[in-house]
Amino acid sequence: MVAYKAAQTARFLKSPDAGCDAALLYGPDAGLVADRARTLAALWARAGDPPGEIVRLEDRDLADDPDRLAVETQTIPMFGGRQVVHARAGGRIDAARIEPLLADPLEAYLLVEAGNLRPTAKLRKVFEASQRCAALPCYADPARDLGPLIDEVLAGQGLSIAADVKSYLMARLGADHAASRAEVEKLALYAEGRGGVGIADVDAIVGDAAAVAQDALINATAQGDTGVALSQLDRLLASGTGAQSLLILLARHFERLHRICAEVEGGAALKTALGRMRPPLHFKQRDAFAAQCQRWSERRAAQALDRIQQTVRASRLRPELERQQTERLVLALSRGG
Question: Which domains does the chain have, with CATH numbers?
Fold first, then answer.
């Protein structure tokens, strides 16, 4: 049985396990799943000599030829290389059609994209049951996923970015991975020829309403303004921002609060502790964050972090309830934990 943790997916994408010839990538962020699927498809295609061809299949491709998926996964290319069959799960490309294919070794690599699958989902169980398959969860983590994305896009245009500017940019990117890539590419085009990206560039290109709403949610939650916090949460969820992304932003914010509160309670001056933060606080956030540090203690911030992590785990086990669980969390935190 090969069931990977979300944190292991990135490692697999850099170095797929030997003997694995079929993979399922799934998660709530279609853009992130598609981006990672393209990465794996290209890696598998380049593994052969000569490189293999990538064949894309959708549900409509099986409408007139129901056996198309089986034929493609057993096709031996005439000119060498190993073919990669990149399919998107749907009404026809489902567990019932895929399971028989995995009973025997495949001539081609099989890669399947899917949405957010519960542990009991048949498609997920099919891939987890075989030693030759991998079921790879894809969940957005701005610190882990968006950081390398920003580096990749900007380096491709010969642009550098300081750590504090990068942190500022990550906080302003939305929950959708594909949309985030588009925003960073737009930023790179805007800053072309300057050698680097600064705060002013981010404000000019990526300072959108969603980012403002995210800041408002986090600050209102930490400052105890329950009405504003719940209002901003509703606004963000209605606009398509994922609850998991907001939970991650809350966790990052309260981790920083906990660290500064611990330093202050250990004898450091608040101004000194704030000045040592890495990445440093943006000047627009300094006064609000300082006020929050006076409202929270090390113990209460630690309790808040524990509550956030419990909500993350619960919402991943019951994704259909993640909105209600996130609302309860924001309500509790804004009332003091």
Answer: 6-137 (3.40.50.300), 142-206 (1.10.8), 209-334 (1.20.272.10)
